[in-house]
Amino acid sequence: MVDVKQPIPGGVPGGDGKHKYKKSGQVAFYRRQMKGPTMQYEALFHTIFLSEKGVHFELLEPHLESKLLVCLSPCKNNIIRIVIDELLPIKSRYRVQDVLTKEPQCEKVRLEQQQDDSVMLAWASGLYSCRVWRQPFRMVLLCEDQELVTFNAESKLWFENLRECPLEDKEEKKDVSPEEDNLWRETFRTFVDIKANGPSSIGADLRLHGFQNVFGVPEHPDTLRLADTRNDEPYRLYNLDVFACEMNSHLGIYGSVPFAVAHKQDRTLGVFWLNASDSFVHVNYSQEDSLPPHTDIHWLSESGVIDCMVLLGPSPAQMYRQYAELTGYHALPPLFSLGYHHSRWDDDTQEAVAEVDDKFDHHRIPYDVMWLDIEHTRGKRFFTWNPELFPDPARLQRQLEQKNRKLVVIINPPIMIDPEWSLYREGLDGELFVMDRQGQTFTGTSWAGDSHYPDFSNPRTRAWYGKCFSLDRYKGSTPLLHVWADMNEPTVFSGPELTMPKDALHYGGWEHRDLHNMYSFYQQMALVDSLVTRSGGTERPFILSRAFFAGTQRLAAVWTGDNLSTWEYLKISIPMCLSMCVTALSFCGADIGGFIPEPSPELLIRWYQAACLQPFFRGHSSMNTVRREPWLFEKNVTDAIRSVIEERYRLLPYWYTVFYRAHVDGLPVLRPLWLEFPEEKSIFSVDHQYMIGDALMACPVTESGVAELEVIFPGAEQLWYDVKSAEVHHGGGTLSLPVTLETIPLYQRGGTVVCRAVAVGTCTADLQKTPLAVTVALDAQGVANGEVYLDDGHTFSYRDKGEFCLRSFHMMAGRLQCRAASEAGSYKCGIAVSSVEVLGLRGQPSAVRIYTSGAAEGVSVEYEYNPERRSLTVGELELGVEDDWDIQIC
Predict the structure, then answer these.
(1) Which pLDDT value is given to residue 14?
(2) Is 461 in a helix, a strand, or coil?
(3) H helices then E strands: how many in the chain?
(4) How far apart are CA 272 and CA 752, in angstroms?
(5) Staple partner for 122: which of 129, 445, 581, 759, CB 3.0–4.6 Å?
(6) pLDDT value at residue 179
(7) Nearest to 804 by CA among 878, 693, 886, 881
(8) pLDDT at 12 over 50
(9) What is the mean pLDDT of residues 368-393?
């Protein structure tokens, strides 16, 4: 029997906890929009005017007293922005700030055709255009004459104007219907939400012509392809602390990205709904007898303005670059953060933590980062240390530093109410906390008890919060301390749906309802700035955040949150991570083994195998479980876990290179199969296997007792090589392959080159001097291409000083070339290529010669040919990876 040391707030499937959260029917603004009436907006063509920001015109709904103003902005790089606001609002409505890295540059718009019922707008070369229909109002985006997207196709445009509160006291009125009363106040359980501006919700629908597969809008424990919601709950985007969420639930959980990606054979298209309030998304796929096919996406949000961007692609790579240009390219993580992380919520002492660190070395298991949960603090006061458990935390960090390892500590937003605590007094005196609707400092319950919550939307708060990480203020911290931002939805145990009341007040007088989903984003901004400032602008920070929003990819890593130790949670972790990656959150993962209760040895091994093929690789568990350090199990389990972690470390040069591509191109690290094989309709909804970059395909085992595994091999002309046996499989079909408990199904795509470390060492720092093994997997034409990216692994010198090394590998006609992929890099890494293996040779070669830069003639070298693997291996090489050289197979 497990000794439950701490209760865990939140909902458990099937328990009372699920009643703490709203379903769509319990949300007043959702009910109003879904019940109608249908608005019949008319575009007033006589109000059209063109400007540098696009075309503007007014909308009129005959039954409403006020008008709307539409701004249609065709932007460079094939982005269409649609902004709708009140024409003459009584006050400004909230507009999301800081998520876009810059305002998109608008193209010059031309009015090409005007009729009584429509106008035609064009820009640039005229490839894309927009027809605006007068009554009922709708906008059709076209590529040449082909309809791509229709805005307001189903006349679901909804816009509730701000209004002054009625003079009468609504609480005293006896003849008000419940629905009318909900315009100004809304009750859920015992909580009352007072709406100072009255109803303010917005909504719009977009029809995606020809599309039948839509992905994204995380975070939900559901399939990668979004489900049709016409007879189901809509997808909710509202950051909430939902412990152990139900499978296939559409309720909002920890993070939200209002970005949907649609794909068909000849186009990938994105819809970005820039709104941070409580939102719902309905997805309706056209029925089978509907020709041509289409998908309707209906967005509903509680407040703000309509700010919708359509990313036209047309290729997946172009669409992701468009999104990165809007919200930022992925941060290049420090190399250590791609290694193995060890974490546990427990009340370990400093000595116990140091002992765990030593035992990783004793058992020859590499790892990079030790984590400390809330018990390390003094009474849940963050930025402090429990003096009984950690009398000298700097000494612990120095011990880790001697082994090139790092420490991560948890930092939750709530600041305990303690007049004796200087940090609390500073926040209170500086008016840096969120206020309640009466204008008093908001008080909520957290792990620390009664607490105040920093208002991270306030730049002064972010600056103050950042200073808390300075070494002179955060006593016991050192430069190798990094941050885990937890409970930042924000979680408020005493609040509605375990979060902050929507009528709380933020900087500028904005209500929490306006920016709820951005609370964590603003905290991430503060954390990044603080850690970068701490290093004088030289070191890349590492931050893990539980909650997230669009743009988080440039600030923090994320994970799927508190999960359960079941096969179902292992299986769902893959589509959950893919959904995050589809919306550019590439640095993601799931807690290995589940947070609670106890995984079986088989489940634990399979979870390590799956997790090592995900970007964020962390073992984490609750104090309510028995300890799970890898050496505490039977030898065969420990050996299996060690083997998995070692494979992860060998593959880190490839992982780091793929993250570099995300950093410069915006491409996801984990990729659904359709992203690499965009024309194969049969794989569009596959979410149990995926690509890591463009070269490796993973198909983790996620069920118990599996002896055979069905693996899809896409690409009719594609070759796939088993990374262990080098067995080749031809694309265009599905095979049932034998697996054992030791099998990690991973396949290298023909036509690619992958670099691995030849040794694993004790941590990623050892990889900075470890030679590389290059694996060349030939395609059917005997061609292969790849690259490797190297830098110092932790500073911004790659960006500020050009200190990086990007090398390309190209093989054709039996000749492998290593060349500079970028002339800008100047980093001398000193790493050698010690071996090259070529897979897919058609016969035994007669000789192998190496040509180095400046040498007049090639040098013959020994090689080994394996006819069963159809592979050639050249070993004992000392070829500098930053040097030019060729290997000719004769």
Answers:
(1) 42
(2) helix
(3) 15, 51
(4) 33
(5) 129
(6) 62
(7) 881
(8) no
(9) 98
φ and ψ at residue 818, rounded to 5 degrees: -115, 120
- CA distances to 249, 603, 703, 709 from 706, in Å: 27, 11, 6, 7
End-to-end, the C-alpha distance of the chain in Å comes to 67
| The pairing of beta strand 752-757 with beta strand 784-790 | parallel
With contact defined as beta carbons under 8 Å apart, do 863 and 845 qualify?
yes
The upper half-sphere exposure of residue 325, i.e. CA atoms within 13 Å in the direction of its Cβ, equals 17
Helices (H), 651-787: 652-665, 673-676
- 597 to 33, 235, 562, 566, 607: CA distances (angstroms): 41, 28, 11, 9, 14
Determine the Cα–Cα distance for residues 71 and 651; give it in Å rounded to an integer.
48
User: What does the block give as tokens for 478?
Assistant: 């050192």
Local confidence band at 277 (pLDDT 50, 70, 90 cut-offs): very high
Examine the pLDDT at 175 and tell me if it is beyond 60: no
Instruction: Given the residues 562, 591, 791, 886, select the one marked as catalytic.
Output: 562
Share of the chain above pLDDT 70, in %: 96
- Checking if the pLDDT of 391 tops 80, the result is yes
**Cα 521 to Cα 204, 466, 495, 498, 550, distances in angstroms:** 25, 14, 20, 19, 8
* Active-site annotation holder among 296, 368, 486, 591: 486
Q: Do 159 and 306 form a contact (C-beta atoms < 8 A)? A: yes
Query: What is d(CA 353, CA 347) in angstroms, rounded to the nearest whole number?
Result: 10
| φ, ψ at 354 (rounded to 5°) | -60, -35
- The predicted model scores a pTM of 0.96
Per-residue tokens: 389: 């458990």
Query: Which distant-in-sequence residues (6+ apart) come within 8 Å of 687 by Cβ?
Result: 223, 224, 225, 574, 575, 578, 672
Query: Is 232 designated active site?
Result: no
Preceding amide of 857 cis, omega within 30: no
Share of the chain above pLDDT 90, in %: 92
The 8-class DSSP code of residue 491 comes to B
Of 168-177, 190-199, 518-527, which range is least confident? 168-177
Asked if 825 and 790 touch (Cβ cutoff 8 Å), the reply is: no
Q: Does residue 173 register a pLDDT over 60?
A: no
Q: What is the mean pLDDT of the chain?
A: 95
Please confirm, yes or no, whether 562 is among the known catalytic residues: yes
